[in-house]
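Our platform keeps sequence and structure together, in a single record for each protein. Such a record has a labelled line for the sequence and another for the backbone structure tokens. This encoding replaces a full spatial description with a residue-level series of whole-number codes. Below, we set out a record of this kind in full and without editing:
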Amino acid sequence: MSEAILKTERICKNFGALQACQDVSIDLRPGEIHAIIGPNGAGKSTLIAQICGSLRPTSGTVEFTGRDITDTGTAARARLGLGRTFQISALAMEDSVLQNAVLGALGASGHPWRFWRPALADKDLRMRAESALQRVGLVEQMHARCADLSHGQRRQLEVAVALTLAPKAFVMDEPMAGLGAGGSRTLTGFLDELRAEAPILLVEHDMDAVFALADRISVLVYGRIIATGSVDEIRRDPTVREAYLGEDP
């Protein structure tokens, strides 16, 4: 078994008396897509926030490439190679597609506060940004304003921004949200290829996409992982079918 690139060890997150995450241990291995599924309110967003650094666990640890990053900030985690896309778009809507991609490359360079004009004129940053846009199919829209993109194109741009970081792993929070059937199929195909470059921890409600992509699935219910296994194992698990898939055990 390959050593995990990303893992959590018994992380818990309490908000007063509320336990949003309870002893959650998961891992992400090279070349795989590991999907996290669960009903609304299960604690998925809280789990992702702890993995990406915007929330610190009450207890437990987060490790990335063999390093304890529990106390490491979000920007530092990104520079270490943890690429994230968001459930709600975090793009700069009034800036161009290229500017958004360059911003990602600029963050990866370790000098995020350089002025726009020098950054856009930096050949290396621009090449990295344009290469990422080419990969997601947005190079022809590079000068368009982000606000003028379709919802699906914004999702593509978020992936491009993450790609500029040359990530060692991706954390993707509902990338299919708001996409139609055609957009979901296109993004599913892209993610299927992307796993060869960097493994993906995928939080997603689109079960067709999850079943098409996932090597492993973990099911989170009321802040606890109730099952982890292959697609077939999760489909057959009576506890999962009763708690989340809406079927009789």
The longest helix spans residues 123-136. The chain has ten helices and eleven strands.
